[in-house]
């Protein structure tokens, strides 16, 4: 893999460009935008039409659209898709209401934590702080709790790029909807 560099000034150091990911292509943004709009419409139809859609439903719809746009090629997208599938399956099994059993809650509390993989870092407080930060990062990225450090960093970079595209698409959608509302108010 080659690294593109951009000159910072005459004879000065060079700065690396951020790597081009699949999330930064216009085609991928268009696909995600379409899936996001479809998912939000579905979430809105599922809630009562007279009231606005709850924010949790919007978040779930946006995450689901993001995972579908990734086509399950990364761990985080597969984790989101499987979570949605399990939730839907449980909802159907329980007759439309999601119920959590006390036994499942107890199992979640008593699950043994897996030691985080070791990394070559200078010994002392820095190593402990580094491990803590890796633990936090592994909890933030869906499906990445038990990964090695290089794989975790790669998945996190892909997830952040996807989230940046999600923010861009949602901002564009919000701008268009507010502009449409303004034109309706003026007429």
From TrEMBL:
One MF annotation (Gene Ontology) recorded for this entry: protein dimerization activity
Subcellular location: Nucleus
Top-level taxon in the UniProt lineage: Eukaryota
Gene Ontology terms: cellular component: nucleus
Keyword Transcription listed: yes
Region Disordered, residue ranges: 1-26
Entry keyword Transcription regulation: yes
Primary localization class, coarse: nucleus
One Pfam family from the record: IBH1_N
UniProt keyword terms in alphabetical order: Nucleus, Transcription, Transcription regulation
Residue span(s) of domain BHLH: 114-163
Record InterPro entries: bHLH_AtIBH1-like, bHLH_dom, HLH_DNA-bd_sf, IBH1-like, IBH1_N
A single GO BP: regulation of DNA-templated transcription
Name of the protein: BHLH domain-containing protein
Record organism: Aristolochia fimbriata
Species classification: Eukaryota, Viridiplantae, Streptophyta, Embryophyta, Tracheophyta
């Amino acid at each position: 893999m080659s690294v593109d560099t951009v000159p910072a000034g005459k004879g000065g150091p060079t700065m690396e460009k951020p790597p081009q990911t699949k999330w930064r292509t216009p085609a991928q943004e268009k696909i995600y935008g379409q899936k996001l709009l479809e998912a939000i419409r579905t979430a809105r139809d599922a809630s009562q039409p007279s009231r606005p859609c709850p924010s949790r439903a919007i978040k779930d719809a946006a995450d689901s659209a993001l995972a579908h746009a990734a086509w399950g090629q990364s761990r985080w997208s597969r984790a989101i898709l499987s979570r949605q599938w399990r939730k839907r399956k449980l909802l159907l099994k329980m007759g439309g209401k999601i119920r959590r059993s006390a036994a499942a809650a107890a199992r979640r509390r008593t699950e043994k934590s897996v030691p985080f993989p070791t990394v070559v870092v200078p010994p002392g407080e820095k190593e402990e702080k580094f491990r803590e930060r890796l633990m936090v990062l592994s909890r933030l990225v869906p499906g990445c709790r038990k990964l090695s450090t290089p794989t975790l960093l790669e998945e996190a970079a892909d997830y952040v790029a996807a989230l940046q595209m999600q923010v861009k698409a949602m901002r564009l959608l919000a701008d268009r909807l507010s502009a449409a509302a303004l034109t309706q108010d003026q007429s």
